[in-house]
C-alpha cells in the first residue's frame, strides 16, 4: 500500500486539510506512515494534478488560509479499483526478535529484564489501542457494516498485542537458565 491510497481512503470518509491528514497519520495505528510529513503534501499535490482530489482554500480569522482536500469521482473510482485488487500480505518487522538473536550475550537476569520491559511496552500499547477503539477517534461509522468493519480493524490491532503477550509467556516459561 502506498500513502497515495491511504490518503484517498481517508478523503473518501470526509474532506481534510493537509495538517489534519498529518495528525491522523501520526495518531493512528491503521494509517501509520513511516515517511516524512512532506510526503503527505507532495502526495496531495500529485493527487490534485491527477484530478483525484480537489482543493479549496479556506480563509481563517487570525490564521493563515488552509487548503481543504476532497476526493473526486475519479479518485473514488481509483480507490475502488485498488480496494478490489489482491490484498498484500502484512509486513512483519519486529525489532525485538532481532534483539533476541543477540541475547546469547546477556545474562539470564539481563534477558529477563529485556523481556519484561518489552512486555510492559506491549501492555501499554494494548491499553492505548483499547482506548482508541472506545473513543472511535479515527474512523467513521456511517453504516452498521462500516462500524462493524472498523471495530474488527481495531480488534486486529488488539489481537496482535494480546498474541505477542501470550507468546512472551511461552518464552518466559520455556527459557532455560543457562
Summed up:
The protein is mainly α and 178 residues long.
Taking all residues together, what is the mean pLDDT? 89
Give the proportion of residues in helices.
55-70%
**SS class:** mainly alpha
Overall shape: elongated
| Assembly category | single chain
Helix-strand sequence: HEHHEEHHHH
Radius of gyration: 21 Å
Give me the CATH superfamily of the largest domain: Winged helix-like DNA-binding domain superfamily/Winged helix DNA-binding domain
**Beta-strand percentage range:** 5-15%
- The number of helical runs is 7
CATH architecture of the largest domain: Orthogonal Bundle
What's the count of strands?
Answer: 3
CATH topology name of the largest domain: Arc Repressor Mutant, subunit A
CATH class of the largest domain: Mainly Alpha
The separation of the N and C termini measures 44 Å
Low-confidence stretches: none
With strands numbered from the N-terminus, the spatial order across the biggest sheet is 1-3-2
Amino acid at each position: 500500500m502506498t500513502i497515495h491510497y491511504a490518503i484517498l481512503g481517508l478523503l473518501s470518509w470526509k474532506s481534510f486539510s493537509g495538517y489534519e491528514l498529518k495528525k491522523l497519520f501520526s495518531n493512528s495505528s491503521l494509517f501509520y506512515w513511516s515517511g516524512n510529513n512532506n510526503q503527505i503534501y507532495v502526495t496531495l499535490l500529485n493527487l490534485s494534478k491527477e484530478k483525484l482530489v480537489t482543493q479549496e482554500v479556506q480563509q481563517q480569522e487570525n490564521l493563515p488560509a488552509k487548503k481543504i482536500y476532497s476526493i473526486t469521482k475519479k479518485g473514488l473510482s481509483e480507490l475502488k479499483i485498488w480496494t478490489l485488487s489482491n490484498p498484500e500480505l502484512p509486513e512483519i518487522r519486529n525489532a525485538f526478535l532481532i534483539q533476541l538473536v543477540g541475547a546469547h550475550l546477556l545474562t539470564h537476569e539481563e534477558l529477563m529484564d529485556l523481556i519484561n520491559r518489552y512486555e510492559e511496552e506491549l501492555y501499554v500499547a494494548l491499553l492505548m489501542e483499547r482506548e482508541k477503539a472506545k473513543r472511535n477517534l479515527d474512523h467513521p461509522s456511517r453504516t452498521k457494516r462500516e462500524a462493524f468493519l472498523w471495530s474488527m480493524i481495531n480488534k486486529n490491532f488488539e489481537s496482535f498485542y494480546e498474541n505477542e503477550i501470550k507468546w512472551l509467556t511461552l518464552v518466559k516459561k520455556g527459557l532455560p537458565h543457562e
